[in-house]
Structures are given as structure tokens and as C-alpha cells.
Design goal:
The chain is of the alpha+beta class and 317 residues long. The protein is built from seven helices and ten strands.
């Protein structure tokens, strides 16, 4: 990881999100994995028992009720429909973000007693998801302590343990509500949970799961674009005409010659859809279609789609 240009990670994540929004194959993969892994959300069951091994049914029932009561009220941003999500919705969002961005941060946020009562929340805690794009990975940090090291928004102590996360908070200093502050703020690593798929011993940050698919996907996108263009060209026609014997005028400003010219008198150098072409004399009008053959591309496009899917953990090509 340390041998790679840091800008590549942000570029890969941006490409993955773009493909997710624009490419149906990518979107289907993320939705399928979220449904398979998260489904209707985590549903833990208490295994509380007495010293002699008998289940504590009342305790288990109350633990289940506690979990259910937290479902729609534990998002730091608010209740569903008021800026927040259900706990299950947060799980789906977190997994999708990990797949596309490669990682996600979250922290537990205490709330006041008044806010707890307002939400009817049985615990005085909420969960805040934090986009890893807010990590200050592109600045040289002056606030890093002596003897500590710094890598893409994470400060490490002398033992290479995570010490602090430097995160940009939202600021409206310039009047823009969604603008991130230029100066990041340090957060104790003990308060931040950092979730990503670790594939290397010394990996500090996550990488989009689509990294292995993005370059083939670019080639596949070019292929699909060209096939669609070819298909569209078949719906376009060119009109050609030949002046009748003795006739010297056709179009707005023609020249009296047998050269191929358009209706403005300009000599033709190539064909384009919607053109009228002067083919000389003898009184003849014809319509011409490109007649492009796009058969045989279906298998290639399917192969591109399978290649994209096979590059992502947990999916079958």
C-alpha cells in the first residue's frame, strides 16, 4: 500500500461510485451483496443462562425488545424520514460504502437525557457513520506529535498503533452548508471504529472492492458505447440525388458541376447522417443506410459483465 500513489485510492473510489450510479451491472452487484450479507439486518439473540445452564427466558426477551426499540432511533442524524435511517438501513449503507469506497468510519455519540426522551431511545447513545473521504489524507499535518507518524489521515504512535484520526468536519463558514472545513480535527482512535476488508499485513486504509474491475469496466464501457452508436447509425440515412438532364439548380446555393457537393455548394469530404449528396446528372434520388452489422457483440458484452462481477469478493461471475 505504501508503494502506491495516494491519489490512486481516491480516484479508484470515485470511479467505483460513478460506475455504481451509471452501470447497471455494478449496481446489481452491490444490491445483491447487501441483500445476501445484511438482508433484514443483524438480529442477535441473547444466550443468557443460569449457572446450571437453564436459559434466562425473561432476560433474553428483554434483550430482544431492547434491540428492537433501538432500530428506528439510534441514527445520530435523526429518525427515518427526518435525516436518519433505521439500524438495518445503516448496515446496508455501511456495507455499500465499504464495497465502493473501500472503508467506513463510525463512532458512538452520547446524547443528552432530553434528546433521549425525545427519541424514546432506551439507551443514551447513537451511532454516527463517517465517510472516509473526510479523512485528511492530502495534507501535511502540523499537529502530529513528535515521534508519531502520519498516513492518509491516521496518526500512529511510536509503536505503530493508531493514535488519532484527523477528520474534516462540515463547516458553513463560507455559507455553503455541505462544505468541509479546510483544517481537520483530531479524534482519539479509541472513539473511532474503522471498518474495511484487510488484504495485506501492513494495510492501514481500505480499497474499493471494484479496483480489479475498474480498468476492464472502462474498456467494456467503450465497447458498449460503440455498439450503441453503431446501432443508432443504422437509423440514420443519407439522401443522394442526380440532376435531370438540362437542369442546373438544386438546393440553396449549388454549383453547376458533377462534383459531390452539399446543398450549400461545399465539396463533400465524408458522409454524415441527414446529408443530401449531389451525385451528378440523370435525374435520380436514392436513400442510403449505413448497414452496420453488430451481430456477435452480445457474447463479448456478457463476458465483460462476468469479468466485472468476478473481480468483486462474494460474487459469482
Amino acid at each position: 500500500e505504501n508503494a502506491l500513489d495516494q491519489a490512486q485510492f481516491s480516484l479508484l473510489a470515485a470511479d467505483a461510485w460513478s460506475k455504481h450510479r451509471l452501470n447497471p451491472h455494478f449496481r446489481k452487484i452491490t444490491r445483491a451483496l447487501c441483500s445476501k450479507v445484511v438482508g433484514q439486518g443483524l438480529r442477535p439473540h441473547s444466550q443468557a443462562a443460569t449457572p446450571d445452564g437453564k436459559p434466562l427466558e425473561e432476560f433474553r426477551a428483554r434483550a430482544k425488545k431492547l434491540w428492537e426499540d433501538c432500530q428506528e432511533r439510534i441514527d445520530f442524524r435523526g429518525k427515518p424520514g427526518r435525516g436518519g435511517r433505521t439500524l438495518t438501513g445503516m448496515q446496508h449503507l455501511a456495507l455499500r460504502t465499504i464495497m465502493l469506497s473501500g472503508e467506513i468510519l463510525f463512532k458512538m455519540r452520547p446524547i443528552t437525557e432530553a434528546e433521549q426522551k425525545k427519541r424514546y431511545l432506551p439507551v443514551p447513545l447513537t451511532i454516527q457513520l463517517i465517510d472516509c473521504q473526510r479523512l485528511a489524507d492530502d495534507v501535511a499535518m502540523a499537529g502530529v506529535k513528535d515521534g508519531h507518524s502520519y498516513y492518509r489521515g491516521i496518526e500512529f504512535d511510536s509503536n505503530r498503533h493508531r493514535y488519532r484520526y484527523w477528520i474534516r468536519d462540515y463547516s458553513n463558514i463560507t455559507g455553503a452548508v455541505a462544505e468541509l472545513a479546510t483544517v481537520p480535527q483530531p479524534y482519539d482512535a479509541n472513539d473511532i471504529y474503522h471498518v474495511f476488508l484487510e488484504e495485506d499485513e501492513d494495510q492501514f486504509r481500505g480499497t474499493t472492492w471494484f479496483a480489479a474491475a475498474l480498468m476492464p469496466a472502462r474498456n467494456g464501457g467503450d465497447l458498449r458505447y460503440n455498439v450503441v452508436k453503431s446501432s443508432a447509425m443504422q437509423a440514420c440515412v443519407v439522401l443522394s440525388y442526380a440532376l435531370a438532364t438540362g437542369k442546373k439548380r438544386f438546393g440553396k446555393n449549388p454549383v453547376d458541376s458533377n462534383d459531390l457537393v452539399d446543398d450549400e455548394g461545399n465539396t463533400l469530404t465524408h458522409f454524415a447522417p441527414g446529408m443530401c449528396i449531389n451525385r451528378g446528372k440523370d435525374g435520380k434520388v436514392e436513400m442510403h443506410a449505413p448497414n452496420i452489422n453488430i451481430s456477435g457483440y452480445e457474447g463479448l458484452i456478457q463476458g465483460e459483465a462476468r469479468e466485472e462481477a468476478a473481480a468483486v469478493p462474494g460474487t459469482k461471475s
